[in-house]
Amino acid sequence: MERLCPGSRGTGFNCMKCVDANRAQFTEACGEFSDSDQLAGEGSFAVHWWCGIGWPESAAVQGPITEYCVEYAPIKEKTPAGDGFSDYLSCNSDEVDGLLGNDPRNPSCVCIVYDDRLLAHQTYASLKEDCYVGEIPWVNTPICNCTGQIPASPLPQGGNPSLNYVGRAPVWLPYVGYKMAPWIEGTPQVSSGYNYHFPKAAMCHDGEAIGT
């Protein structure tokens, strides 16, 4: 892949343009592959992973899981996410690919997307407040606007605390990643931790004391 498309690894849809221009050679080497956000064809995982688009770029079944200890500066005001965390942003995902043409080497973020809201066990009533305002190209899932943001947009606007502070969203069992449907209030659920996002603006500065 590097020989046919030098320097294109991880450049998202720009990489896919090169792959499509050389489809015959890639199909011969990798097998049939899809230009959609799904894994039909034995070559789709390899091509999508190389280009850095869709879910495969972070599929744990194909790579290691690493734990990090991260210090964060909390928001002083009370927040819906609790403990000084901002509202979660979905970053470097297939939904960001569809909305922005994401570049994994310089990843972008959007306000928490439909699938991540389902992982957080949001109910249909809650989802109706922000979602179902359109469909994300390529992944064909509902667009969700940022909660409480004016003007309404799926993209965080200037002044949104999520751009400057670490955010989180809960993850619950049963895990709905394989059966994407809103949680029904009152049905059993077990807390399973959080998903986090780490905005560039919240990064520690050179020489800044940490661990204090």
What's this entry about, in short?
This protein has 6 helices and 7 strands, in the order αααββαβααββββ.
Query: How large a portion of the residues is in β-strands, by DSSP E?
Result: 5-15%
Walk across the major sheet and give the strand order. 1-6-7
Radius of gyration: 19 Å
Going by helix content, strand content and strand pairing, the class is: alpha+beta
- Major β-sheet, in short? 3 strands, mixed
General form:
globular
Tell me the helix content: 10-25%
Separation of the first and last Cα atoms? 46 Å
Got a strand count? 7
Which parts are unreliable, with pLDDT below 50 for 5 consecutive residues or more?
none
SSE succession: HHHEEHEHHEEEE
Return the average pLDDT rounded to an integer.
Answer: 88
Q: Output the number of helix runs.
A: 6
Question: What features would you describe in this structure?
Answer:
With 212 residues, the protein is of the alpha+beta class. Helices cover 21% and strands 15% of the residues. The protein has 6 helices and 7 strands. It has helices at residues 13-21, 23-30, 44-51, 94-100, 114-119, 124-130; strands at 86-87, 89-91, 109-111, 131-135, 142-144, 167-173, 190-197. The strands form 3 sheets. It has a 3-stranded mixed beta sheet. Helix 1 (13-21) packs across helix 3. The longest helix has 9 residues, at 13-21.
